[in-house]
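Support request, priority: normal
Reporter: lab tech (M.K.)
Component: structure prediction queue

Hi team, I submitted a job for Leucine rich repeat containing 18b from Esox lucius yesterday, and the status page still shows it as pending. I've pasted the exact input below so you can check whether something in the sequence is tripping the parser. The sequence length should be 255 residues. Please let me know if I need to resubmit or if it's stuck on your end.
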Amino acid sequence: MAKGRKRSNEPKGRKITLKMAKLALKLTMDGKRRLDLSNMEIAIFPKCILKLCDVDELDLSRNLLKKLPNSIDKFVNLRWLDLHSNQLDHIPEAIGRLQNLHSLNLCNNHLSTVGLPSEIGLLRKLRSLNLGMNVLERIPSSIAGLKELRHVALFNNLLTREPDCLRNLPHLESVNLKCNPIPPEDDKGTGAVRRVECLYLVKESCLCASCLWKVKEDRRKVDSWLSEDHSHRKSRFSGMITPNSVAQEDQVTWR
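Reply from support: The job had stalled in the queue. We restarted it manually and it finished. Here are the results:
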């Protein structure tokens, strides 16, 4: 190493200037201002974009971000925040101050239970929450306060039970718990563990007539099989059923 040159501990990545950020501004079909900085090899949150904090949507997905600053709360108008496919292991408490947020995507990061703050339960307008492909063993109980929540993705985590905090959410339509080590109900206490390879929970009103008939027929067959085996599996989420994988086409967006 040359004399006098210091080794930088900062992660390597692309530097984003304000000019570059302004060029990345787009107008969505419904007239929202979106700042799209996805897939740009960004390793450090660009402070310059705080000057564009009046945007409605912010896409920082598919980058190299390891940290999100507290200044994220400057984006007071934000309705849509996409941070999927980064290297985040912690979300700041300031996330709870994004009171207009409707959609939050944190899929495919390094988030553990301690890295997800309880303040996420302050996002009262949140309708879609994607926490798939992390290392979560449980989720904050404060999520029970998200009364507008419609869709939750928790696939590919380390959950060993279905989260109690989701049971009484009035508008919940779908929960994706695919690929979690959730033990079967009739194997409690035995130490047996299985992986849930495909589990979607939806309201009956979300299914067409043919799909609803098929689901009920499959459920009848399963109940019949369980009764023969002298066991009975109770539904964990009132008013919801488990459809086949093709019952809702939009489920492909969670995969």
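Confidence is low (pLDDT under 50) at residues 186-198, 229-255. The first helix runs from residue 18 to 23. Let us know if anything else looks off. Ticket resolved.
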